[in-house]
Specification:
alpha/beta, 2-enoyl-CoA Hydratase, Chain A, domain 1, eight-stranded mixed beta sheet, six-stranded mixed beta sheet, 21 helices
Length: 509
């Protein structure tokens, strides 16, 4: 017994004592170092430390494959259970091996059984060619099926922490949170294959660097400087979420006064409706101080999405940003908002909407980008959500976009207006030009008539008529926005009834 025990102790020590100096010179941690930094000290339990590559791989190209290129296991993150799979770029380029994927699937099985989050740290080049260049690549790997099963049941984090190509890139699309370290790259295939098959010469950074995926494609949620910041952001993200969809999101003791009033909210919205202001200021002044955690801050900046706390309770924020496209919602913004609504709804996080929207973005380019489809998808996703919803109307509430930002028809638990609100199908100036421009534009007094009619319509679109008709619950002092939202959240704790008469709808994608 002692001799056999010593054998396995020695084998484990050989795996644990590997040299990672090459990674360190790149200012990156090894896979096991990332895992150790993620979990509470002494809590990590590793699965499959002695795993090695499959016999198919050995028959093609035999070489050492410690852990078969992936660290898997479970432990505690801030006292709560979570599972991990961290690909090791130093073992066959972090490629996905048969045995390594069995290890990963084992962790996913435990997450499905026990209901804990999964963190995937991607640093690899996709399928392991030594094993996949074989008809055995048809094996019954539930790699994606079981991750799809976990989606919406437990939080899934997929961190891009180096190279992320092939199957690794596909994992990110199933992530609820995708941070990406500076210098990392991601793509369906890498530059070598693009050059050989399509005669396209491009660098990894141009193809799928941080700028591409954090600013243009929206595949990544947050740019971070290095591994340490990445892991800190993962922990912060998880702190807003329950371990699974059957639990309530964690609530923290808040030191921020729930009755706090901010005088500066009175002066944020400009008198001139054409002037912009930064909606981030409104959000920061209303939520618990320092609690706003924005997702996709550099992508589709005309809409703001993120997590925050109100009196210690997790909430999701969706807000138009007048600083970009005047807050109009284009295809990218609609898709960004739709995904965020679905995510918050899955984990029981109430949604708070801050509206200042001139409409869905029209025009030829917008039509080509599928604005009809994606604007409807935003409405569709909202209609299927069941979490408490609160709408705060700030200024412009124009057109069908008002539906996407949770109007009365979606039964928000509370719908409030600031005194600055204007509600209309379209901007009064556009309405006058459409209704009277053709018949009166030749009149020598057209500009004077036009201005008079615009003023008449602007008086009609003030919040007065909506209040008189009972379409708005109240017009409030902006300084009291925080306290009123918190009181509404204390009331709205239960989910609304979903559409239980069908299996599921068909999303307009």
């Amino acid at each position: 017994m002692r001799e056999k025990l010593q054998k396995y102790i020695k084998l484990k020590q050989e795996v644990q004592n590997r040299d990672y100096s090459v990674q360190h010179r790149k200012n990156r941690l090894s896979a096991i170092e990332r895992v150790q930094l993620l979990f509470d000290p002494g809590s990590f339990v590793e699965i499959g430390i002695l795993a090695k590559q499959d016999v198919v791989g050995k028959s093609v190209k035999e070489e050492p494959t410690p852990r078969d290129g992936i660290v898997t296991g479970y432990g505690l993150i801030n006292g709560r259970l979570a599972g991990v799979a961290a690909y090791d770029i130093t073992v066959k380029g972090g490629s996905m091996g048969f045995v390594g994927e069995k290890k990963f699937n084992r962790v996913k099985e435990l997450a499905l059984e026990q209901g804990f989050p999964i963190i995937i740290m991607c640093d690899g080049t996709g399928a392991r060619l030594e094993e996949e260049i074989s008809s055995r690549m048809l094996y019954d790997n539930p790699q994606f099926k079981n991750l799809c099963a976990l989606s919406g049941y437990v939080p899934i984090v997929v961190a891009v922490m180096g190279e992320c190509f092939g199957g690794h890139a596909n994992l990110t699309a199933l992530g609820d949170f995708v941070p990406m370290t500076k210098g990392s790259t991601m793509g369906l295939v890498g530059p070598p294959l693009l050059k050989s098959k399509m005669s396209i010469e491009i660098s990894k950074e141009e193809l799928g660097g941080v700028k591409v995926h954090c600013e243009k494609s929206g595949m990544a949620d947050l740019e971070v400087q290095d591994d340490h910041e990445c892991i800190a952001m993962i922990k912060k993200f998880l702190s807003y979420l329950p371990s699974n969809c059957h639990e309530e999101p964690p609530q923290f003791e808040s030191s921020d006064d729930p009755e706090r009033k901010e005088d500066s909210l009175l002066d944020i919205v400009p008198v001139n409706p054409k002037r912009a202001y930064d909606m981030h200021r409104v959000i920061d002044l209303v939520v618990d101080k320092g609690s706003f955690f924005e997702l996709k801050p550099k992508f589709a900046k005309n809409i703001i999405t993120g997590l925050a706390r109100m009196d210690g309770r997790s909430v999701g924020i969706i807000a138009n940003q007048p600083m970009v496209l005047a807050g109009a919602i284009d295809s990218f913004a609609a898709n960004k908002a739709s995904h965020f609504i679905e995510f918050c709804d899955a984990f029981g996080i109430p949604l708070i909407f801050f509206q200042d929207v001139p409409g869905f973005l029209p025009g030829p380019q917008s039509e080509l980008a599928g604005i009809i489809r994606y604007s409807t998808k935003m409405i569709y996703t909202l209609a299927h959500s069941t979490v408490p919803k609160i709408s705060i109307l700030i200024r412009k509430v124009y057109g069908l976009a008002h539906y996407g930002m949770c109007n009365r028809g979606f039964n928000p638990n509370l719908i409030l207006a600031w005194p600055t609100v204007e509600a209309s199908a379209i901007d009064p100036e556009d309405a006058v030009d459409i209704m009277f421009g053709k018949t009166l534009s030749k009149s020598p007094d057209w500009e004077q008539i036009r201005r008079k009619k615009i003023d008449e319509l602007r008086n009609k679109i003030s919040i007065d008529e909506a209040l008189e008709a009972g379409l708005i619950d109240d017009v409030i002092d902006p300084r009291e926005t925080r306290s009123i939202i918190i009181k509404a959240l204390r009331m709205a704790k239960r989910r609304q009834q979903g559409f239980n008469f069908k299996h599921h709808g068909i999303s307009p994608i």
